[in-house]
């Protein structure tokens, strides 16, 4: 009798699973739409610089002011400037870029708290999925600039370092801003990760640390002094399979 009851119950379980599978299948189209819109709109904005930092930084904080300064300098130098589109450092970045000569771009995402789109975007895209949004930050970036931030900022930093380290993305300038904030992490890389063999000594050359806004612009132009901002044919192929 127990076996019979189990067999009778199974169709309802399968029906529930099928319904869930149908929802997951339709989700694929939503994900595809985010990628298609991102590719179409961001492909026309090069060269661009992606900038990251804390959503919790207040408008009167030195890091907010620093982020706005960096973004405006980059914008006036001809770079479209891309942020996560939210408050804090992201708002400062978009505000600085908006005051400059080039596009201010926000890759917005809906979150239960913290995230609300800022008002300083010439071009704003909306995402539901972090992974689709993260691809957009990397795929069209000429450089990465990372200011002090939390887990999300560390996630973006680790993402680009991993992609470049493993050869899945082209080499671009990765610039950390703020010695007091980043020095402890870099020291841990050097004194713990390298001796443990979890990263190679040369992996520390994937990024550089600066403190002044003009140093960010100088570092990017120095990197591209003998190469084009546009990806090479080989780099395009690499980014195609990102």
What's the short story on this structure?
The chain is α/β, with parallel strands linked by helices. It has helices at 2-42, 62-76, 89-98, 130-139, 151-165, 179-196, 213-223, 233-240, and strands spanning 48-52, 80-83, 104-109, 123-127, 141-146, 174-177, 208-210. The longest helix has 41 residues, at 2-42.
Mean pLDDT over the residues: 91
Unreliable stretches (pLDDT < 50, length at least 5) are: none
Strand content: 5-15%
- Write down the secondary-structure element order: HEHEHEEHEHEHEHH
Per DSSP, the total helix count is: 8
Which topology of the largest domain does CATH recognise?
Rossmann fold
Q: Provide the gyration radius in Å.
A: 21 Å
> What's the overall geometry?
globular
- Which percent range fits the helix content? 40-55%
């Amino acid at each position: 009798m127990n076996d019979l009851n189990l067999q009778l119950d199974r169709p309802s379980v399968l029906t529930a699973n099928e319904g869930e599978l149908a929802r997951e299948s339709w989700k694929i189209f939503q994900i595809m739409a985010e990628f298609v819109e991102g590719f179409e709109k961001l492909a026309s904005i090069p060269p661009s610089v992606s900038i990251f930092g804390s959503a919790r930084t207040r408008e009167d904080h030195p890091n907010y002011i620093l982020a706005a300064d960096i973004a405006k300098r980059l914008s006036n130098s001809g770079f479209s400037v891309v942020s996560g589109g939210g408050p804090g450092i992201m708002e400062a970045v978009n505000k600085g870029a908006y005051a400059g000569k080039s596009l201010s771009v926000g890759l917005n995402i809906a979150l239960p708290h913290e995230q609300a789109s800022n008002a300083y975007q010439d071009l704003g895209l909306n995402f539901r999925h972090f992974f689709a949004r993260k691809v957009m930050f990397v795929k069209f970036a000429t450089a990465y600039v990372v200011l002090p931030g939390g887990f999300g900022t560390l996630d973006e930093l680790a993402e680009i370092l991993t992609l470049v380290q493993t050869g899945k993305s082209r080499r671009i300038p990765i610039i950390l801003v703020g010695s007091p904030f980043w020095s402890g992490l870099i020291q841990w890389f050097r004194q713990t990760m390298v001796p443990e063999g979890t990263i190679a000594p040369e992996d520390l050359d994937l990024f550089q640390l600066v403190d002044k806004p003009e140093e960010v612009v100088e570092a990017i132009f120095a990197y591209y002094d003998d190469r084009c901002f546009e990806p090479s044919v080989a780099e395009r192929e690499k980014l195609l399979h990102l």
